[in-house]
Amino acid sequence: MSPRRSPGIAVIGAVLIGALTAVQARVNGSLGAEIGDGVLAGGISFGSGLVVVLLIAAALPAGRAGLARLVAGVRERSIPAWMLWGGAAGAFTVACQGLAVATIGVALFTVGFVAGQTTGGLLLDRIGHGPAGVVPVTVRRVVGAVLALAGVGVSLTGDGVGGIPIWMLIVPVIAGAGVAWQQGTNGRLRLRVQSPLAATVVNFAGGTAVLIVAGLVHIAIVGAPRALPADPWLYLGGTVGVVYIFLSSVIVQRTGVLLLGLGSVVGLLTTSVVLDAVWPAPAAPAQRHRHGRPLPHAERAHFRTHTG
Questions:
Q1: Rounded to two decimals, what is the model's pTM?
Q2: pLDDT, mean of residues 23-50
């Protein structure tokens, strides 16, 4: 039976990818709040992930073979340059996590992310960017995307977004669209080099390079960040990213970009709501309210200073 006709397990994997994305957002957001630098937090996340995936690839024969095919393909120019830059979208996403999640919370970040990923996935499938080729825009696929976007609209109702800078609501949308492109790109690279590990290495190498440059520029402008925290869990974002990038590069060829995105939405929304309930971010919207009313601006600033 063809993979496209038996997507059940692949969809479960897509849900897991979404759950891991929410966990990574919470970890990277906390690290960004601790050091006061979301860009550097993203660089640490990607850099640690690169180390982990390089060690795995070097230890496994399949990983070494995939890296050899990758190097040969780059040298012979049989692998186009754009396939090597899926990590740039991931770099933007983790930088956004570090910059925004500690303030707006995982759930609200996920709202914008879902809007971008769902819309981007539908468009990318239509133009054939993913490894599954052109996927027709059927009624069921459109209805699924519309329902996901409707959920986003419901999440934005009420006063939960009051006082949040508009850019913090926009950048997750851009990040979601970028991740849809990243998933399609990594899936095509995985087919080209016949190795999800090699595709994951490329993803983390490109993202780390982008974030190192961005981090150096940021430090030159605003100065050095605060001292790095000692809590080990704050440095697990990269390892979590290795797992879901690896999974997405395998699953996307079975599901297409949109179905992968919709499955991820389930995991994202469910996990993000749970995280914000049991493990709220330092300055998430729910914590900026007292007795049902927004805290004054000065109190919000004091809260961020003493809880970051």
A1: 0.69
A2: 87
